[in-house]
């Protein structure tokens, strides 16, 4: 779970937990471990049990955007990721979307002054964007992170290495997320991202489990179009956001009890079936 891909050490690691989105059947050959397929999303989380999980609005005080350095008006694209998850092509797609939506802003987690200067140089030099269109923020305690996250309009997943906990943070707070799931695409140049990797398919697994397939793009052009549509088509965006608000309560994604019961039953199957040579599909309990 903490290392979402193969270790390549068959004598050391026996099993890898996954689902049919994160490791589709045509990619099984690249994993040295025997694969345990969860019936829904493989990623377990405990967001539902946290008082700050975003499901209980009474916990949160209303925070004006201006209090944390955000514009009061406009559409906020949120990218609170480690800097090593961001690749040049994805960042430029985000900036291109900003040029298509004048009253929009990109809210990025900073890794320091050098990062900020480099990203601002690309935004202004290549796309002609004003400095205030990029807003940087620092890491804060988790409770403050969840509080300010609610002020975003759309969370932007990073294709090279998807959001895991931060993606759940966004979705449980009712903030839609756009993610990329390219099918059978081999990178052809240094700017292409290999999205066949397990950690590059987690966001799509989240969204499929929440029945929000319209937020899954199959290429970067569609990814950018989804960004723009969320910011410009209020009726469509509000419909997606309302479905997320409702689905997060019933979805297996945030049902930890359900996940654990299924997982425990799966482990019993592993013990009982000592002849597993390739995969085991865990049946939902």
Automatic annotation (TrEMBL):
Pathway membership: Protein modification; protein glycosylation
Single GO biological process annotation from the record: protein O-linked glycosylation
Highest taxon of the lineage: Eukaryota
Keywords for this protein: Repeat, TPR repeat, Transferase
Occurrences of domain O-GlcNAc transferase C-terminal (ranges): 1-49, 65-260
InterPro entries: OGT, OGT/SEC/SPY_C
Keyword Transferase part of the UniProt annotation: yes
GO molecular function: protein O-acetylglucosaminyltransferase activity
Name of protein: O-GlcNAc transferase C-terminal domain-containing protein
Protein's organism: Minutocellus polymorphus
């Amino acid at each position: 779970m903490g290392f979402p891909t193969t270790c390549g050490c068959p004598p050391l690691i026996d099993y890898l937990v996954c689902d049919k989105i994160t490791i589709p059947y045509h990619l099984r050959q690249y994993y040295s471990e025997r694969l345990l397929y969860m019936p829904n999303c493989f990623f377990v989380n405990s967001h539902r049990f946290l008082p700050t999980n975003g499901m209980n609005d009474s916990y949160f005080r209303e925070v004006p955007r201006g209090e944390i350095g955000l514009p009061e008006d406009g559409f906020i694209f949120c990218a609170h990721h480690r800097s090593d998850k961001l690749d040049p092509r994805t960042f430029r797609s985000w900036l291109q979307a900003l040029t298509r939506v004048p009253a929009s802003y990109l809210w990025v987690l900073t890794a320091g002054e050098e990062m900020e200067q480099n990203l601002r140089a690309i935004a202004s030099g290549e796309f002609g964007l004003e400095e205030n269109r990029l807003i940087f923020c620092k890491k804060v305690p988790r409770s403050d992170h969840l509080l300010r996250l609610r002020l975003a309009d759309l969370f932007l997943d990073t294709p090279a290495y998807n959001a895991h906990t931060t993606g759940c943070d966004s979705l449980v707070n009712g903030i839609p997320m756009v993610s990329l799931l390219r099918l059978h695409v081999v990178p052809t140049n240094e700017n292409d991202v290999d999205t066949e990797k397990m950690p590059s398919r987690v966001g799509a697994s989240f969204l499929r489990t929440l029945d929000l397939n319209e937020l899954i793009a199959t290429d970067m052009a569609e990814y950018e179009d989804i960004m723009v549509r969320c910011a410009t088509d209020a009726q469509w965006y509000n419909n997606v956001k309302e479905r997320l608000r409702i689905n997060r309560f019933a979805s297996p994604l945030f049902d930890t009890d359900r996940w654990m019961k299924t997982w425990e039953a799966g482990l019993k199957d592993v013990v009982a079936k000592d002849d597993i040579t390739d995969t085991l599909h865990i049946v939902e309990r």
